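Design a sequence for this backbone.
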């Protein structure tokens, strides 16, 4: 990809592709302006719940949308960010009838000045080669209906796989040569993205592939987890196989900056220590460290922050580090806009800290006051909509394939004890509950 100055640069995109309400327009503008500082070169707009993107894709964008898109494009150009926009017609595509509507809708975006466009077929009922060919022909119709200065990308139904399925082979057979295919790795939420898988898929499809990495996104079964932790490890060799990368972010634009920043750093410099990079990124946001340390959990590392966990046993023996951390709270120095966006998790942090503090006090002979009944407060924490200090339960998009059939992987279900559970369990054991 070439910048405005003519310098070839990597395609590193932030992807607004989550389920849930799209970003507020002003928040999106702020995010676009911030992206270059974190190493990003592109932004891809395709929120699933924008009705004109997916459910009502045939309906022309209203004037209000077009005005916002025009401003987005101006801000993106000012920030030297390539703006990509996509449509998702797969819920009710009618071959032989809908091609003109697809071209007309994309023409709206082209006439506005957009030159990075795509057609997405993800998250609809699967099919075999015939469905792939149908989708490939639809993309080919879009390409034929617009000038040849568009950079095209598509996402197939089978976007999470280590091999080319019959569907993908049918799709690739009908796609024009200039259309790239996006892919999330071997699974929807990929614990690892081996270069060998990317190389195989690119060779089998005979075209460039882009990695759409599902981090730090937290929609659907992950909605209770705020992903503020280090970037997942990615095979350095994968960067030499794929044509670019996009990171699917959360519906909270400020919080998403942490995951986006650490992911871009790891992608652009895989030799950098991911933990050190994460601490530096978190440290650049005043007041965020306490919450970020409690929200660092992800699929491959669902437990509490290792350092906080290492303080548990010393705390039970009288060491004051954990108690001091909890007593300091999670809001000191946090900017008001960050605090407003993160409020549900800040409240969860405080509720967990109260129970942990009571557990530590119990070992010092201090009984909780009447306002805190631990037999009620502890179970109540398990019913909160937001999780902190580790993952108790979440459902990630980890999948596998039996042939061409996609199935959920047992590892998609994450269950565990968070820091409160670990601390309170050990504290109660030391107190020695009565027997008989």
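Sequence:
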């Amino acid at each position: 990809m070439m910048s405005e100055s003519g310098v070839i640069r990597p395609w590193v995109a932030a992807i607004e592709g989550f389920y849930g309400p799209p970003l507020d327009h002003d928040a999106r503008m702020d995010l676009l302006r911030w992206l270059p500082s974190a190493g990003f070169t592109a932004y891809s707009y395709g929120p699933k719940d924008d009705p004109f993107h997916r459910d009502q894709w045939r309906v022309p964008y209203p004037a209000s949308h077009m005005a916002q898109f025009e401003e987005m494009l101006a801000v993106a150009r000012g920030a030297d960010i390539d703006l990509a926009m996509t449509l998702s017609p797969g819920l009710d595509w009618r071959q032989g009838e809908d091609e003109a509507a697809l071209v007309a809708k994309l023409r709206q975006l082209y006439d506005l000045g957009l030159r990075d466009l795509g057609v997405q077929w993800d998250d609809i009922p699967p099919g075999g080669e015939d469905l792939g060919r149908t989708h490939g022909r639809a993309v080919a119709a879009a390409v034929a209906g617009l000038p040849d200065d568009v950079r095209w990308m598509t996402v197939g139904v089978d976007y999470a796989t280590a091999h080319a399925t019959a569907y993908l082979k049918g799709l690739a057979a009908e796609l024009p040569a200039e259309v790239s295919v996006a892919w999330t790795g071997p699974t929807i939420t990929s614990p690892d993205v081996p270069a060998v898988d990317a190389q195989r898929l690119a060779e089998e499809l005979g075209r460039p592939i882009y990695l759409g990495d599902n981090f730090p996104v937290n929609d659907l079964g992950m909605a209770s987890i705020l992903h503020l932790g280090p970037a997942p490890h990615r095979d350095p060799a994968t960067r030499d196989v794929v044509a670019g990368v996009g990171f699917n972010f959360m519906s909270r634009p400020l919080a998403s900056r942490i995951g986006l920043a650490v992911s871009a750093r790891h992608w652009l410099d895989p030799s950098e220590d991911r933990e050190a990079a994460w601490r530096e990124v978190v440290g650049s946001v005043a007041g965020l460290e306490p919450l970020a340390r409690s929200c660092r959990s992800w699929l491959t590392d669902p437990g509490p922050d290792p350092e906080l966990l290492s303080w548990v046993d010393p705390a039970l023996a009288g060491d004051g580090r954990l108690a001091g951390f909890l007593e300091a709270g999670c809001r000191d120095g946090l900017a008001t806009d960050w605090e407003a966006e993160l409020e549900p998790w800040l409240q969860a942090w405080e509720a967990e800290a109260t129970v942990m503090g009571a557990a530590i006090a119990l070992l010092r002979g201090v009984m909780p006051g009447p306002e805190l009944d631990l037999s009620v407060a502890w179970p109540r924490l398990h019913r909160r909509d937001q999780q902190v200090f580790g993952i108790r339960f979440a459902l990630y998009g980890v999948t596998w394939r039996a042939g061409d059939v996609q199935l959920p992987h047992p590892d998609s279900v994450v269950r565990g004890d968070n820091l409160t559970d670990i601390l309170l369990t050990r504290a109660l054991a030391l107190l020695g509950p009565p027997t008989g």
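DSSP finds 15 helices and twelve strands in the chain.
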